Amino acid sequence: TRTRVAVVGGGPAGLMLSHLLHLGGIESVVLDHRTHEEIRTTHRAGILERDAVRLLVDSGVDRVLTDGDRHGGIYLRFGGENHHVDFEQAVGASVWLYPQTEVFLDLHEARTRDGGDLRYGVADVEVHDALGRPRVTFTDVDGAAAEVVADVIVGADGSRSACRALVDPREQFLRTYPFAWFGFMTQAPRSADELVYTRSEHGFALISQRTETVQRMYFQCDADEDPAAWSEDRIWTEMHARTAGHDDFELRTGPIIEKSVLPFRSFVQTPMRHGNLLLAGDAAHTVPPTGAKGLNLALADVRVLAEVLERALTKDDAAALDSYTDRALARVWKAQHFSYWMTTMLHRTADGSEFDERRQLGELEWLTSSEAGSAYLAEGYTGWPQR
Ligand code: DHB
Fold this sequence. Notes:
Organism: Nocardioides bruguierae
Bound molecules: 3,4-dihydroxybenzoic acid
Protein name: 4-hydroxybenzoate 3-monooxygenase
Distance between the termini: 35 Å
Strand content: 25-35%
Oligomer: single chain
Number of strands: 22
GO molecular function: FAD binding; oxidoreductase activity
Domain FAD-binding: 2-338
InterPro entries: FAD-bd (IPR002938), FAD/NAD-bd_sf (IPR036188), PheA/TfdB_FAD_monoxygenase (IPR050631)
CATH topology of the largest domain: FAD/NAD(P)-binding domain
Helix content: 25-40%
């Protein structure tokens, strides 16, 4: 097969790129070793920044507006009380609760409707000749050897990216954390109208939502925690301890229908381009989950990438690709700071001192009682204006 752009990775980032390229009149082929079913059923975060929603809606993918929930703020819970941060008031912006799995389904449907060439469940994917005429070889679903020859290859193949290793020379930046997140789904009503990010002496907890009857929650745990060791009783005891307080907040509980431990790290690889191979999303950078920046950052990459690819492939502006790494990384490092900052403000470490605890509380008091403090959080959470 011959195409303009071969996209390795058919998650939301790869599909959004293929969709935007299609709207710009550029054909692409999307490959993924995972099946549609595997991607559809992998729980990921649920918050879209203002401009991520705008990108979806402006490109004709607008189910988020009817099936998503607009959230004008969050609660920071500390000292046994909820403190509301109003994004609308602080920066005139909001976010949308709309799970990443729904974004995937919407984009998959748009690409299928528009006749997109999507190949899920392929094996042995390998990228060749990134510095010349690039191609991807793989084994198709029927077990036959296959090849896609393209002008450009995009690695949108996630945090365990194989494309990443082809960038040479490369620089990597990594920060690890001495904890992880335990995530679970529960059949319960909502506990609050917006998300509740909790800091307690027992560690961090987050109460997010999915529907009227299913909620998504997380709590800080050890990196080597075994989900099987956590019974329903044990999970709720832990959640109650962390969210206890003296206001009228009530944690709503129910049967737990899914549980897992999430990886937790900050990572950036640069440059994001090697000849005719370009990286997007988690393939080039990972953020810890606090603040839900991962998908938003991937969509921001893809928006810039679609624009430079359009210039390079339809306007003969080969130099357009040169600007990609710097433009993408400008936002990446802001999001890296934001995710790191929210993480360290709300989590406990085993070696944390009394000083650290009181300093954390001082920061939270400042954030929730000052206009400048609320604006700092609100601007990062709803997403910096796109350039
Ligand atoms: C969700 C996940 C996050 O990491 C976050 O900060 C907010 C919400 C979620 O899964 O809903």
